[in-house]
C-alpha cells in the first residue's frame, strides 16, 4: 500500500484518547516512560497514542509485561485476528508515541510530542496548542512528522507519519487533545480489466478498508461502506476475504479462490494463492448474515427458549445490538416496538443482542420496557454472535427473507419506513 499525505476537504477525522492518569495501573505499566520534561511547564498531562494496537499488545505480552489472559482479552475486545501475530515482531518496535501537555509559564497552553520516538522530550520543540480545524491544507502545513516502525517480512522499517495535534478548547490545557492524521494508504489496481482502489486511513483502530470501483490513481477518500477484517472485498462480483492488515496498513492480505483476474502490472505486492473462501457469511450488505444463536433472556412465558437466526428464514429480521448502559439504545425501544406491533411474526421478527454491564441489568430492562422480541446476552455461555463488527451501540442490521443483510444501522423510525416499503 502506498502512503499519501492529504485528505479530501471536510472529511477530517480526529481521535481523542484517555490521559495516562485515566488508565488502569496494569495498562499504564505497559506504556513507555518519557524523560526530559521541561520544568517551566506546569499542570502536566501525559498521553500515549498507540498506532498499532495488536503489535503493542503482542510485544508487551512477549516481554512478559502482561499475562496471556490479558493479551487474549485485548484481542477479543478489539476483534483482532489472533492468527495475525505471525506478522508481528516479538521484540519491541515503535508503534506509538508520547505527548505531554501543560501550561508554559503558568499561562500558555502548550504540548510536546516525542516526534523522534526516543522517549525523551528534551530534544523536542514546545508548541502552543491550536484549536481544532477542518481545513485540510492548514492541518497538513501544521502537522508534525512522527517516527514509527513497521514490521514487514521479518524486517523493521522506519517511516514518518504526519499528525496534527489540537484541542477544542486550547485555552484550557486540561481539555482533551485531538489527534488528526491527514494521510492514508492506497493501492490502485486492475481486476478483470476494471480499475479499483483500496484505501485505508492512518487513524485506523478498527482496521477499516474502503473500496472504490471504476476509478484509478490516487483516490479522493470517502468513508463509505467500510470493509473490516473477515469481511469481503468484492471485485467484479468475486469476493475476496480481507484476511490481514499488516504494518498499520502497509500491506493488505486478501484470500480467495481465483486470483487470475488481477493484472500483475497494476499491483505492487506479490499475489500469493491461499485457501478457497468457503464461508460466505459476512456482516456486510448483500451477504448472508453470520450465525446468531443463544438462550433467550428468561421471562414468564418462555423461560429457556433457544433462539437461532437460521430458524427465521422466510421473514424480515431486525438484529439490534444494544448495551445496558447505552441511553440511545434504550430510548429507541418504543420506536422499535411500533414496527414489531405493526407486522405479524410471519412477516417480521427482531433479535436483540445485549451487552450486559452489570448482573441482572439486561433482564430488568427487558421487563421494564416490556420487550416482546427475544433478547440474548453476549456474555452468556452458548451465545454465538461471531462475525459481526460491533464497535459501538446501537449497531443494527436488517435481513431479507433469505437471511441476507439489506440495511445497516437503521434506527427505530427508519426501520418502520423501510419495512413499509418492503412489506405490503
Strand and helix map with partners:
Blueprint: E1 2-5, E2 14-15, H1 25-28, E3 41-50, H2 53-62, H3 68-77, E4 96-104, E5 108-113, E6 127-128, E7 130-131, H4 136-141, E8 144-152, E9 155-167, E10 177-180, E11 183-191, E12 194-201, E13 210-213, E14 232-235, E15 238-246, E16 251-255, E17 293-295, E18 306-308, E19 316-323, H5 327-331, H6 333-342, E20 348-355, H7 361-368, E21 375-377, E22 395-399, E23 405-408, H8 412-422
Parallel strand pairs: 7-9, 19-20, 20-21
Antiparallel strand pairs: 1-11, 2-10, 3-4, 4-5, 5-6, 8-9, 9-10, 11-12, 12-13, 14-15, 15-16, 17-18, 19-22, 22-23
Helix pairs in contact: 2-3, 6-8
Structure description:
The protein has 424 residues and is of the alpha+beta class. It has 3 domains: 2-180, no CATH class; 184-266, no CATH class; 293-422, Glutaredoxin, CATH 3.40.30. 15% of the residues lie in helices and 32% in strands. It has 8 helices and 23 strands. Strands 2, 7, 8, 9 and 10 form a 5-stranded mixed sheet that branches. Helix 2 (53-62) packs antiparallel against helix 3 (68-77) and helix 6 (333-342) packs parallel to helix 8 (412-422). The radius of gyration is 24 Å and the shape is globular. The termini are far apart. The model has no long low-confidence stretch (mean pLDDT 88).
Amino acid at each position: 500500500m502506498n502512503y499519501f499525505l492529504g485528505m479530501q476537504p471536510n472529511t477530517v477525522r480526529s481521535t481523542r484518547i484517555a490521559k495516562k492518569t485515566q488508565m488502569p495501573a496494569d495498562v499504564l505499566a505497559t506504556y513507555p516512560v518519557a524523560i526530559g520534561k521541561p520544568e517551566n511547564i506546569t499542570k502536566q498531562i501525559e498521553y500515549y497514542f498507540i498506532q498499532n494496537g495488536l503489535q503493542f499488545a503482542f510485544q508487551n505480552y512477549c516481554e512478559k509485561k502482561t499475562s496471556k489472559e490479558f493479551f487474549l482479552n485485548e484481542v477479543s475486545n478489539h476483534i483482532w485476528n489472533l492468527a495475525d501475530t505471525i506478522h508481528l515482531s516479538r521484540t519491541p518496535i515503535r508503534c506509538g508515541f508520547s505527548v505531554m501537555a501543560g501550561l508554559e509559564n503558568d499561562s500558555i497552553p502548550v504540548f510536546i510530542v516525542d516526534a523522534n520516538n526516543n522517549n525523551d522530550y528534551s530534544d523536542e520543540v514546545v508548541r502552543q496548542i491550536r484549536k481544532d480545524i477542518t481545513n485540510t491544507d492548514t492541518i497538513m502545513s501544521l502537522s508534525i512528522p512522527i517516527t514509527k516502525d513497521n514490521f514487514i517480512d521479518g524486517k523493521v522499517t522506519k517511516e514518518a507519519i504526519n499528525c496534527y495535534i489540537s484541542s477544542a478548547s486550547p485555552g484550557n490545557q486540561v481539555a482533551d487533545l485531538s489527534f488528526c492524521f491527514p494521510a492514508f494508504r492506497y493501492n490502485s489496481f486492475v481486476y478483470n480489466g476494471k480499475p479499483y482502489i483500496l484505501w485505508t486511513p492512518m487513524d485506523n483502530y478498527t482496521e477499516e478498508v474502503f473500496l472504490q470501483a471504476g476509478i484509478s490513481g490516487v483516490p479522493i477518500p470517502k468513508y463509505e461502506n467500510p470493509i473490516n477484517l473477515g469481511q469481503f472485498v468484492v471485485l467484479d462480483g468475486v469476493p475476496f476475504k480481507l484476511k490481514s492488515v499488516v504494518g498499520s496498513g502497509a500491506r493488505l492480505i486478501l484470500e480467495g479462490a481465483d486470483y487470475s483476474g488481477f493484472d500483475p502490472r497494476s499491483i505492487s505486492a506479490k499475489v500469493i494463492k491461499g485457501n478457497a473462501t468457503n464461508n460466505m457469511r459476512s456482516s456486510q450488505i448483500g451477504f448472508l448474515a453470520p450465525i446468531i444463536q443463544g438462550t433467550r433472556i428468561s421471562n414468564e412465558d418462555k423461560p429457556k427458549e433457544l433462539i437461532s437466526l437460521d430458524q427465521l428464514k422466510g421473514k424480515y429480521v431486525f438484529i439490534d445490538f444494544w448495551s445496558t448502559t447505552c441511553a440511545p439504545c434504550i430510548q429507541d425501544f418504543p420506536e422499535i416496538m411500533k414496527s414489531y406491533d405493526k407486522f405479524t411474526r410471519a412477516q417480521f421478527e427482531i433479535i436483540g443482542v445485549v451487552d450486559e454491564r452489570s448482573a441482572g441489568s439486561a433482564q430488568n430492562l427487558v421487563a421494564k420496557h416490556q420487550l416482546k422480541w427475544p433478547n440474548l446476552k453476549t456474555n452468556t455461555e452458548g451465545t454465538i454472535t461471531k462475525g459481526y463488527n460491533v464497535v459501538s451501540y446501537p449497531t443494527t442490521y436488517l435481513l431479507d427473507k433469505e437471511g441476507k443483510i439489506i440495511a445497516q444501522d437503521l434506527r427505530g423510525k427508519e426501520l418502520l419506513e423501510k419495512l413499509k416499503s418492503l412489506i405490503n
